[in-house]
User: Fold these one by one.
Assistant:
Number 1:
Amino acid sequence: MTDHGFSTRAIHVGQEFDPTTGAIIPPIYQTSTFVQDGVGGLRGGYEYSRGGNPTRTSLETLLASLEGGKRALSFSSGLAAEDALLRAVLQPGDHVVLGNDVYGGTHRLINRVHGAWGVRNTTVDLGDLSAVREALAVDGTRILWIETPSNPLMKISDVAALAELGHEVGAIVVVDNTFASPALQQPLALGADVVVHSTTKYLGGHSDVVGGAVVIDDDELADKVQFVQFAAGAVSGPMDAWLTTRGIKTLAVRMQRHSANAQAVAERLVGHPAIQAVYYPGLAHHPGHELAARQMSGFGGMLSVALVGGAEAAKAFAEATEVFQLAESLGGVESLIGYPSEMTHASVRGTELEVPDNVIRLSVGIEDAADLIADVEQALEKIAGRA
Ligand SMILES: *Cc1c(COP(=O)(O)O)cnc(C)c1O
């Protein structure tokens, strides 16, 4: 299947029909253990589902193919995946460099959980390559952590250039590819060593499962992460793995529609009197537009806007939409709206990762673009009437 296109692989890799019954969809192996033909006589290598389960193998094989990596490992959440990677790589005293607009939960994990075990970190503007070089020069730097596009201001970072800088000091270069998904961006091909995902978002795509994954192109590192997966045990269950695999089959078409809808909404909001700024890489004036056009094959479904009326207007807007539902998370087929400074990014308030309090974030779904545009317009009218 390696010579097939992305959409074909998304539907078929790791998805061979069941040889016993002909079921076109492989069964969900909802089992904790596997009967042995005599001690150690494993059928197909499976022994106990923390160590391995065929439904999880199916998802992992698929994810490795879509990201162009040798191996993938799937976990019970995005943060569980990140944690396993960090534990596999880091020792007390080691140093991690990460973007100053990294996902708040990633910062919390590295700073507070791993920080308590003596791991140091520096946050830096990933768009400032000399600042990145300086941060990487700190003794003991083991990881450069990149997230692009970033959350929620949609900053675009140059993966190829950053990977080169990271490799100069022998660091492992990690890209959180949650926002773009492998349908729009393939960090391993750009020079990164590891891709991490919250599969909860676009890969699952239907807001019905929490999960995470690590994709690695190097067997030695993959063995280490697989050992942590087995030894610490934050694995994805068979049902979660199956739901994620099912979601991935439509990833390519969903990402096209997410991107088209987000572009339409972003263009409509630019210049609106209630809107101070629109952050979407598909807009020609976005500072990362050209880089995104080079590095990605679409601009994705996430955008943020800053409101002229400040925090009050931003909150009122988030509460006034109807098709866009007020909720955390992103990447599902249904549109969501969020107020980062008190929702997704509440944990970084008061730090340099703080999000301006007049910003709201839209996860633009795959409904009809006309309905989404009408919804944001009626919400802006409603709050203008209130002011
Ligand atoms: C949601 C998210 C995570 C964390 O994933 P969970 O599945 O919620 O644990 C990590 N990175 C990004 C960019 C995310 O959006």
Note: The longest strand covers residues 141-147.
Number 2:
Amino acid sequence: MYKKETISIHAGQKPDEKTGARAEPIYMTTAYVFKNADEAAKRFSLEQEGNIYTRLTNPNNTSLETKLAAIEGGTAAITTSSGMAAISYAVLALTNPGDEIVSADNLYGGTYEFFNLTLPNFGRKVRFVNSSDLTALKNAVSEKTRAVYFEALGNPKLDIPDFEAVAKIAHDAGVPFIVDNTIGIGTVQPLKHGADIVVLSATKYANGHGNSLAGAIVESGKFPWDNGKFPKFTEPDSAYGGLRHYQTFGKSTVSTSIRISLMRDLGATLSPFNAWLTSMGLETLYLRVERHAQNALAVAKHLENHEKVAWVNYPGLENHPSAKNRDKYFEGFGGPLLTFGVKGGYDAAVRVQNNVKLISLLANIGDTRTLIIHPASTTHQQLTKEEQKSTGVTEETIRLSVGLENSDDIIADLDYALSFA
Ligand SMILES: *Cc1c(COP(=O)(O)O)cnc(C)c1O
């Protein structure tokens, strides 16, 4: 077994057999030729593995799936056209109308709206609990629960869950623990700490260069899907001659089941070109996450002593509320994101945002470039003050996604912008 840096480069990709190309060719094709009618029939009935149509599989997507499964320490994965597609498919695959999910409340805005407004239209209810209240979590889990859902690092709250404690609550209730590891990839492997499914927006740190959307679902291969709560995985599937997914696919039940049902029917397939870009980004994952964290720590320490700054929230700082979980699960790294409060409040924070030069004002994270946003006037403007507070947003909060530039240049740009605060 190779070490993690080696895995991120080599997993899923060998030199091309036909041409010898060392880097991966891009397979921009919609469909694949069958040798004959017999082979075609066997592929459609799943008796023979192989490509049929790119909505289901493509060599670039397969290689990215192998790489992501290896990086996350899982047994199988399926890529999707975006992080939101991954989250939707994971939740829809595990639930039926009438079922419930229990979720932490500190979610990415898109996920929060999906859980809060869209999923109820599909007959699924999500119960939100405070991300640091394990008692509330335990009390919210019921006979109707089919999954417990957390993010590896709340954003912009920047809190790290106690993965093992949450996993125990989920497993005691006979349901899987799903972790959105978008921000934690390369720093933490939730599947090694009790999670059963990882969902990813590979758009962010997996790709790392801000050039394409991608998503993925990775499974641990350990969850006992035959405990009576997941009939879609254990009952005969009439679309494939009565095939039972868990009995047939075992450790790749979740990803294969999604591929042959939700992906086949709803079609949020990842473009092979985006898969190729994401795979290339992953080759430098561990270099990048380390430098993101070093730069973020340098910026956090500088801002802590800045006269215009009221407070700094960075999980890498010594006395951070998540210090214990950081040391236990994040190998001591504080991650790539930080928030800080500008003393002059809402208007001063907006002025800082307006006066950066090197740093980009935009709604994204996980780029090589440093990014800034004032959540109260942008990403979180539609939330009530109370909802804002529960996600870690106040009027004076600024969020930085610290990039890979030299930290001196990032700090100089912030000093300049803060002179307008
Ligand atoms: C961006 C993001 C998503 C959504 O991913 P897309 O690729 O934009 O669809 C989900 N979860 C987290 C934590 C994110 O940051």
Note: Residues 285-304 form the longest helix (20 residues).
